[in-house]
Amino acid sequence: MKRVVHDTWASILGVLYLGLMVNLLVLVAAAPLVVLLMTTDPVHSWPLLAVAAPLAAPALAAAFGTFRAHDEGETQVVRAYWRAWRATARQALLIGLIVVALAVVLLVDVRMLAETDAAVLVVPVLLLLVVLAAITGLLGLAAIAEVPEARLRDVLRASAVLGVRRWYFQLLSFAVLGVQFGVFTTMPAIAIGITAAPALYVVWANSRHCLRPVLDLDQEPAAAVAVRGS
């Protein structure tokens, strides 16, 4: 019985440590974006936010990689995070750049066309494309956390297709992110220090499940992911 109690408490403390350290490491890795969000008005500072946002993509991919490593038994959170960051930073940054660039172009078009006669037909399509870009980017970050060596083209194609086919998974992910953003706007310290890691964990687990048709999750970790057609 004592052994069971000890293991239970060790597991609880391990999860708490994982959450707190991931919060801290994501804050450090995504510091430019976090600082801008906390100190500026996004309505006026959106060009700076657009520049800083891609830099946060490697931070998210590394967090996903850390959750994966912890799921496989890794207990050294800092080492797992920076190992995942080094392995995924280039691909994640490219995904961030592509998604942010598309979103900026599409949203600028929405703003320009909002007062025209074509707005009723064109604006919903443009907003739908923004959502598709966000879904593809989020799933892409989860995918490269599983297989950093995957070709970016294959990752984006699989993420876009599965994001549309399994759209119901994305509802949960974006609902969680929406709640997290709401907490951040009202209680930034709580959002950064406590709720960020649980929210990201839910998004990672949900995205991983969404990608299951193209992920071989039952194989050894070193070859755990295979993108079909790659």
Topology:
Layout: H1 2-29, H2 31-39, H3 42-71, H4 77-113, H5 119-146, H6 152-165, H7 167-186, H8 188-210
Helix pairs in contact: 1-3, 1-8, 2-3, 3-4, 3-5, 3-8, 4-5, 5-6, 5-8, 6-7, 7-8
Beginning-to-end CA distance, first to last residue: 50 Å
Looking at the structure, what is the overall shape?
Answer: globular
Structural class: mainly alpha
Computed Rg:
19 Å
Structure summary, number of beta strands: 0
Largest sheet properties: none
Question: Which whole number gives the mean pLDDT?
Answer: 88
Number of domains: 1
Secondary-structure element series: HHHHHHHH
User: What is the strand content?
Assistant: under 5%
Number of helices: 8
Low-confidence stretches: 218-226
Q: In which range does the helix fraction lie? A: over 70%
Structure summarized in a few sentences:
This protein is mostly helical and 230 residues long. It has one domain. The protein has helices at 2-29, 31-39, 42-71, 77-113, 119-146, 152-165, 167-186, 188-210.
Salient structural properties:
230 residues, mainly alpha, 0% strand, globular
Describe the protein's architecture and organization.
The structure is a single chain. With 230 residues, the protein is mainly alpha-helical. It has one domain (2-223). 82% of the residues lie in helices and 0% in strands. It contains 8 helices and no strands. The protein has helices at 2-29, 31-39, 42-71, 77-113, 119-146, 152-165, 167-186, 188-210. The protein is globular, with a radius of gyration of 19 Å. The N and C termini lie far apart (50 Å). The model is unreliable at 218-226 (pLDDT under 50).
